[in-house]
Amino acid sequence: MDFLESATTASGPLVEWAIEFTPKLISALIIMIVGWMAAAWARRAVRTALLRSKRLDRTIHNVLASTVRYAILIIVLVAALGQLGVSTTSLLAALGAAGLAIGLALQGTLSNIAAGIMLLWLRPFRIGDYVETSDVAGTVREIGLFATELDTYDGIYRFVPNSEIWNTPITNYSRNPSRMTNLVIGISYGSDINKARDLLLELARECEPVADDPAPIAFVASLDDSAVTLNYRVWIANADYWATMRYLLEESKRRLDAAGIEIPFPQRVIHIVNDEAPDTESGTEAVASGPAKMESPDDPNAMVDDDR
Q1: Tens-digit pLDDT profile for the chain (308 aa)?
Q2: DSSP assignments along 2-17, one per residue
Q3: Is residue 163 within 8 Å of 111, Cβ to Cβ?
Q4: CATH architecture of the domain with residue range 124-172
Q5: Angle at 271 between CA 270 and CA 272, to 5 degrees
Q6: Which fold has domain 178-258?
Q7: Burial profile 230-267: b = 16 or more Cβ within 10 angstroms, e = fewer
Q8: Alpha-carbon distance 43 to 62, whole Å?
Q9: Do residues 229 and 222 make contact, with C-beta atoms less than 8 angstroms apart?
Q10: Start-end of CATH 2.30.30.60 domains in the chain
Q11: Dist CA 35 CA 62 (whole Å)
Q12: Where in the chain is the domain with CATH 3.30.70.100?
């Protein structure tokens, strides 16, 4: 009996504290649950409102929506702890000290955040752009505070830390409205250069995605061993670049073939010279074969060395 009485006497304050603390704990849990749901709802509402707005680029939509969500969660956390009786002043001081320690431990993460802020501020690329760095290339899916998400041309998902993108040169293939393509086309030495050039320029004028300014050009770039090489340069609207470039290359072959203009393959012409001299001592003829020399079509007057 003495033991039960002493246990009851000792547990009395604990029971009273539990009875007093339970409503506060329930209130804090309710605040956390409602606040979590409110933060998710606010994030969706902000994204919907930003999508309807045409003034803000959609590159920063996700960042703004996530910022609103995290701000609400921080307020909810402080309110829940205040409901439990925790002093907010001491809490903020503790959070500051914890933030400093975490910042020192996560320097790489902070560099990613800094790089993400710079990418969002300077905007070297936007969502939907096709970009390339020294290590990765793909279409931008999302730009976050920590990393950028890309889809490669073959459907591979890439998650790239912002610092790796920020610290390397960035090539944005989608930024400008048009791009130049340089098609290299070889024709035979016996073909009419002016006729081939006129056919290529006519094809460019008939192709709608090809820009009129700068105007398409075709010119002789070099005289190679087997062909006269033409450079065929046109400017194409960015949205139609790849399809138009493939069409021009294929259609150029068809039209040059139809006009009788040959696109030669690499070749060499070999001349073998045989010298015959009579053998006066034996009364028979000895055949001496001179050295064979390889000549290119653009050197018809090349000399042939012999040992006579």
Answers
A1: 454 455 455 556 666 766 776 777 788 888 888 888 888 888 888 878 777 766 666 666 777 777 788 888 888 887 887 777 766 666 667 667 766 666 655 566 778 888 888 888 888 998 899 999 988 999 999 888 788 999 999 999 999 999 889 889 999 999 998 999 999 999 999 899 999 999 999 999 999 889 888 999 999 999 988 899 999 999 999 889 999 999 999 999 999 999 999 988 876 778 788 766 555 554 444 444 444 444 444 444 444 444 43
A2: HHHHHHHHHHHHHHHH
A3: yes
A4: Roll (2.30)
A5: 120
A6: Alpha-Beta Plaits (3.30.70)
A7: bebbbbbebeebeebbebbeeebeeebeeeebeebeee
A8: 9
A9: yes
A10: 124-172
A11: 20
A12: 178-258
Out of 1.10.540.10, 3.90.850.10, 1.10.287.1260, 1.10.240.10, the CATH code matching 2-105 is 1.10.287.1260
Non-local (6+) Cβ contacts of 213 within 8 A are 235
DSSP, collapsed to helix, strand or coil, labels residue 264 as coil
b or e along 2-26 (b: 16 or more beta carbons within 10 Å of the residue's beta carbon)? eeeeeeeeeeeeeeeeeeeeeeeee
Prediction pTM value: 0.58
The helix or strand, by DSSP H or E, that contains position 117, with its residue range, turns out to be helix 107-122
- Please give the Cα distance from 238 to 257 (Å, whole number): 29
